[in-house]
Amino acid sequence: MELFDVYSLFDVVPVRAQGCKVWDDKGTEYLDLYGGHAVISVGHCHPHYVAALKAQLDKIGFYSNSVVNPLQAELAHRLGKASGYEDYSLFLDNSGAESNENALKLASFHTGKDRVIAFKRSFHGRTSGAVAVTDNPKIVSPFNAVHKVTFCELEDAAGVEAQLRKGDVSAVIIEGIQGCGGIHVPSDGFLQALESLCAKYGACLVLDEVQSGYGRSGHFFAHQWANIRPDIITMGKGIANGFPCGGILIAPKFQAVKGMLGTTFGGNYLACTGALAVLDIIESESLIMNAWQVGEYLKGAIPASPRIKEVRGRGLMIGIEFNEDVAPIRKQLLYEKHIFTGVAGSNMIRLLAPLCLKMEEASYFVDTLKEIL
Ligand SMILES: Cc1ncc(COP(=O)(O)O)c(C=O)c1O
Questions:
Q1: For ligand 1, is residue 175 a contact (CB within 6 Å)?
Q2: Does ligand 1 come within 6 angstroms of the Cβ of 95?
Q3: For residue 231, what is the domain's CATH number?
Q4: pTM score > 0.70 for this model?
Q5: Is 103 strand, coil or helix?
Q6: 314 and 241 in one domain?
Q7: Which of 23, 218, 234, 333 has the most CB within a 10 Å radius?
Q8: Using the 8-state DSSP alphabet, how is residue 40 labeled?
Q9: Is the dihedral of CA 278, 281, 282, 283 positive or negative?
Q10: In this predicted model, what pLDDT tens digit does every residue of 145-182 receive, in sequence order?
């Protein structure tokens, strides 16, 4: 059997990793400014994380959501404290798309309505509802396209209000910072307008923090820069540093009904252990502050060049938009300079380094970029 060939691959075989470093099967060392697509939050193979997972595996790896798992309640408690959402509830699932799927389902159950407002250039995942609210027709199949979705322009509060006024909208979904669409940070004023418009028209505000959350922006969630409190917050990626895990934070006004949401694997012992270890490390190593300080230094130090159009982002979620296709630059960075980077569209290098990125690693990248430009 062959693999179903859907991924474009770089010719690198990572076999070992530590912190922000990755080694391939030939022993070459790479600097990881991509974090496995924003997944590695506390650094590769952090000893505390590895020890916690190994110890849990020796105790019990899996049962089901039909028995008491105290790790889930511990995680809810710790996450509430760390994020500032102690009065919200936690539902655990397995990925970012599943979190968005559950958020949109919950909003629809709660409001009894079925249309969703999403934004141009959005990305929310690949499952049915999540991909339907994603602004990329190439990945939306006819099966997915049946959902009722309206795409508004980012920053167009009047356009959103015109849609909400029709009275059939269950949710407005927006990324804390648009990632795949090219690192667009919604303004504080726009997020505040969405919060009040949703309250006025009885729709739920869903903040997708799958990529921008978990400390990456310099706050626990990127929307906290705008001082708003969404109805539902969705998470994934960095939550358990690579062990598959996702979840949603749910405002107190939502009524839980037995069976309304569910999953086989969500909240299993290993995922909870990974997520608890991540919170331990974020706190003990002040990684949110580190992400902010190193990220802001990095953003400011990117050299001015006629080849670079703009540098955008917050903390360690940074987009460097070029006036040209970045594929050759990324190849040069990877194969000659041994630096992993991400991409958004054809002209943007996207940096999503682990939150433990050191100043000297950031300045090594800056020096390398200066050299190749
Ligand atoms: C903002 C955002 N939402 C949702 C997802 C989907 O997450 P997953 O791939 O874990 O389903 C992603 C993945 O890149 C994302 O960036």
A1: yes
A2: yes
A3: 3.40.640.10
A4: yes
A5: helix
A6: no
A7: 234
A8: -
A9: positive
A10: 999 999 999 999 999 999 999 999 999 999 999 999 99
